[in-house]
Amino acid sequence: MNQIALAVRYYFSQRFAVPAQRAFDWCTDFDPKDYLLMGEANAKRQISYITDATIILTDVFLSESGSIEKQKLVQLYPNRLSWTLTHLTGPNKYSQFLYKITAEGKVFSTLNFTGLHIEYYEKANATLLAERLCKENVAAWKLLAKAMAEDLKTL
User: Fold this and answer.
1) What is the rounded CA–CA span in Å between residue 63 and residue 106?
2) Tens digits of per-residue pLDDT, 119-147?
3) 3-state secondary structure of 86
4) pLDDT, tens digit, for every residue of 54-112?
5) DSSP alpha helix (H) spans, the chain
6) What is the pTM of this model?
7) pLDDT tens for residues 19-41?
8) What's the pLDDT at 38?
9) CATH of the domain spanning 11-152, picked from 3.40.50.150, 3.30.530.20, 3.20.20.140, 3.40.50.1460
10) Is residue 15 a contact partner of residue 145, using CB atoms and an 8 Å limit?
11) How big is the CA angle at 89 (ends 86 and 93), to the nearest 5 degrees?
12) For residue 108, how far is the Cα from the chain centroid?
């Protein structure tokens, strides 16, 4: 059986109750405990700084059937309040995600997300996969927005 690669593109926005620069700083302050914010207790993260704007994230997800390792390249663009994340290894190798924070006045900001998810399947439905991925990412970013608001309201 031949495996095919399916490229799925999807987009969403998430509003934050903090200024754009603070949102960018919070989102790009990677931490080994990041997965706990999204309810992923069975994940581990290693962070390797190549330069001040180039980071390798190595994430390991533990499950009953074993572990899955994903290595991701993050490139930060602080002057644009944006960053990219590209999967280098793992089941979604070569998937790439673009993040851009925009100011909404002095108090609020919005994350604009563009995803290129590559799924390796024998058969796949791009529309259903895009809907599922978007729903999952929106839910994760809602949790992150809540955590950000909690973290930053005391500063």
Assistant:
1) 43
2) 887 565 667 777 878 888 888 888 888 88
3) strand
4) 999 998 888 788 888 899 999 999 999 999 999 999 889 999 999 999 999 999 999 99
5) 20-27, 34-37, 126-152
6) 0.80
7) 999 999 999 999 888 777 666 77
8) 62
9) 3.30.530.20
10) yes
11) 60
12) 20
Nearest Cα residue to 34 out of 88, 67, 70, 7: 70
Contacts of residue 106, Cβ cutoff 8 Å, sequence gap at least 6: 19
Total residues belonging to the chain: 155
Residue 99's closest CA among 118, 129, 78? 78
Pair 59, 84: CB distance under 8 Å: no
Listed by start position, the domains of the chain span 11-152
